[in-house]
Amino acid sequence: MERETHILINDLRNGERTAQQRLLAQYGQMVFRQIARIVTQQEEAEEMYQDVFVKALRKIETFDERQASLSTWLCRIAYNESLNFVRRTKADIVYIDERPTELEDVEDTQEADFDEHTVQLLEQALERLRPNEQAVISMFYYDGMSLADIAYVTGTKPSTIGSQLFRIRKKLYRLIKTLQQ
Asked: Global pTM?
């Protein structure tokens, strides 16, 4: 673990206020992005942001650097709190039907012409994914997190994340094809 991160964790455990400010400055944007992928209403996301950091500060004693980095640990808290919020509020979310279609055999690596229209279709398709699917896609493609880190955040195994990514990509392909019609 980095020396700076180790010092930060020790300072947080000792209750130093400047450490709390450093934590927010260093990890705040990352945590907010994680929350905003799942909790789409700005006000609710901001409230969740505060809740995540309060929980992290209360639970800093339980952080184990042998299991994950501090950023991954914070992402896990944000992910779980956000999903719990969505479940509690039963947000109105539209999902695609999960039944397999004739597109099930489509190659995962099929090339696409990414013009502006295709990008818009992809964005629309991403919005129709379940919050946990959106989060997995975002962590992998936008944040560049490893399968192991995503597995830690979601509380699953890396092989499960790999399978989920495969299924989500197929689902996105089906959604885009549906949106093109």
From this structure: 0.70
The domain segmentation of the chain, as residue ranges, is 3-89, 102-180
**38 and 135 Cβ atoms separated by less than 8 Å:** yes
Q: What is the pLDDT of residues 118-168, one digit of tens each?
A: 788 888 888 888 888 989 998 998 888 999 999 999 999 999 999 999 999
C-alpha 85/C-alpha 29 separation (Å) is 19
Q: Which CATH architecture has domain 102-180?
A: Orthogonal Bundle (1.10)
- pLDDT tens digits along 104-121: 444 444 444 456 777 888
Decide if domain 3-89 falls under CATH 1.10.1740.10. Answer: yes
Using CA atoms, how far apart are residues 12 and 21, in angstroms rounded to an integer?
10
